[in-house]
Amino acid sequence: MNRSKCLEYYLDSKLYGSKEIQDSIEKTKKEFLNKNVYVDIYLNDFGMYVVTFYFENKNNYFNKIKFKFKKRNKSKAKIRLEKYYGNNYGQYKTTGIYKPY
Fold first, then answer.
1. Sheet hosting strand 48-56, strand order edge to edge
2. CA distances from 97 to 10, 33, 79, 91 (A)
3. Residue 1's pLDDT band (cuts 50, 70, 90)
4. What is the pTM assigned to this prediction?
5. Burial, 14: exposed, middle or buried (Cβ in 10 Å; 0-12, 13-18, 19+)?
6. pLDDT per residue over 39-92, tens digit each?
7. Which of 44, 52, 60, 85 can pair with 40 through a Cys bridge, CB separation 3.0 to 4.6 Å?
8. Closest Cα to residue 88, out of 97, 74, 76, 99?
């Protein structure tokens, strides 16, 4: 699984406690319901909580193959329409009536 960093929050440890941090994490997760979210929290040297959200990258090899097949099938369908109907798809005829098929 490829993970890429998308969001990073910096919260002051003097102002925010663990409850406020958990509430902000839950709010952010609710904004991205359809994505798998991984959270990393740590306290840096300056006294700031660093909350990092990682989202799952859905660009894998199989999705690239599906995209190529869909693109190729659309172009074949357009060629078939032109071949059987004898005119260009979506072009106006001499009558001026638009017929997309």
1. 3-12, 48-56, 37-43
2. 61, 46, 22, 9
3. very low
4. 0.53
5. exposed
6. 999 999 999 999 999 887 666 677 777 777 777 666 666 666 555 555 555 655
7. 52
8. 99
